[in-house]
């Protein structure tokens, strides 16, 4: 990645539980349609990112944020030959709900109303969160993250729409998703899945896409990568994780993981292992106090 001018770091800071962190510069990279369990708050520093979201292409340039709610299908690619550079934080739904309840008047499950927001101040806050996490400054990282999320919710927040399963097609899609979740390593064909649910392959395909924003095979790839991430988080070797979630081998995991998460599974896991080894020194650093925020 370094040789192509692209670079990325995806990591966690133990003092920000439930939050993933990312710094990246991408040029030719494209992200497959995928979802996240957490919110995406991506602050664009340079270039333009184009991401398909809600049925249309969205454009985020310098001074803007790309904002994606949990479990919302989206893609990502460069808006020009120079690529794009950004920093991102991925807070958990529970953390965002906690912040919303304490600092806003939002009721219900909070989310972002628009996928792109022009706000250079919030962009700066996101980059300061990443800097504070790099420096082991837990007080600054936690404070700045909460200030950033509060600002974004006040400027662009609203109740997250709840997907209700009402139609027969939506019910079939939900049942199909449950089957794929359970049989991730050995999924049935679309024809077998549809027959078991008492519908036709194309009817199930349409219903699944309408309900979850992607066809069953794309959803399954996304779900496999998501489960692989959890396995890597607890120390499972990438080759073992690949087989456990149903990929043929580690190269298949590497390809799909990189096109969804943004870094290869080995680099993803090494950052978590490094953070675990750095943790004691980070606590010592904070005890001494850096005086920086």
From TrEMBL:
Pfam families listed in its UniProt record: AraC_binding (PF02311), HTH_18 (PF12833)
Molecular-function annotations in GO: DNA-binding transcription factor activity; sequence-specific DNA binding
Tell me the SUPFAM superfamilies matching this sequence.
Answer: Homeodomain-like (SSF46689), Regulatory protein AraC (SSF51215)
**Segments for region (Disordered):** 271-293
SMART domains registered for this protein in UniProt: HTH_ARAC (SM00342)
Task: Read off the PROSITE patterns from this record.
Answer: HTH_ARAC_FAMILY_2 (PS01124)
Q: Which domain of life is it from?
A: Bacteria
Sections of the chain in a coiled coil: none
Residue intervals of the HTH araC/xylS-type domain = 174-271
Q: Which UniProt keywords apply?
A: DNA-binding, Transcription, Transcription regulation
- The name this protein carries in UniProt is AraC family transcriptional regulator
Q: Which organism is it from?
A: Streptomyces colonosanans
């Amino acid at each position: 990645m370094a040789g192509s001018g692209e670079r990325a770091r995806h990591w966690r800071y133990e003092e920000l539980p439930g939050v993933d962190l990312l710094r990246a510069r991408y040029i030719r990279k494209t992200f497959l349609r995928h979802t996240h369990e957490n919110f995406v708050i991506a602050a664009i520093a340079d270039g333009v990112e184009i991401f398909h979201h809600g049925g249309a292409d969205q454009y985020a340039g310098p001074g803007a944020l790309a904002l994606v709610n949990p479990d919302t299908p989206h893609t990502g690619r460069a808006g020009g030959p120079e690529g794009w550079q950004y920093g991102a934080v991925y807070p958990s739904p529970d953390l965002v709900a906690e912040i919303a309840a304490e600092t806003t008047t939002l009721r219900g499950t909070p989310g972002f109303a628009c996928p792109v927001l022009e706000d250079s101040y919030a962009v700066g806050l996101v980059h300061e969160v990443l800097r504070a996490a790099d420096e082991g400054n837990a007080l600054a990282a936690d404070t700045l993250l909460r200030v950033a999320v509060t600002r974004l919710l006040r400027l662009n927040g609203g109740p997250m729409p709840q997907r209700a399963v009402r139609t027969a097609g939506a019910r079939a899609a939900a049942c199909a998703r449950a089957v794929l979740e359970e049989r991730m390593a050995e999924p049935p064909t679309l024809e077998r899945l549809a027959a078991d649910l008492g519908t036709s392959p194309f009817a199930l395909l349409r219903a699944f896409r309408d309900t979850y924003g992607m066809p069953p095979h794309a959803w399954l790839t996304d779900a496999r990568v998501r489960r692989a991430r959890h396995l890597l988080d607890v120390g499972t070797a990438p080759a073992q994780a690949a087989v456990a979630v149903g990929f043929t081998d580690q190269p298949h995991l590497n390809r799909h993981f990189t096109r969804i998460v943004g870094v290869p599974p080995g680099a993803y896991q090494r950052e978590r292992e490094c953070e675990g080894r750095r943790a004691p020194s980070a606590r010592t650093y904070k005890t001494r106090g850096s005086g920086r925020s």
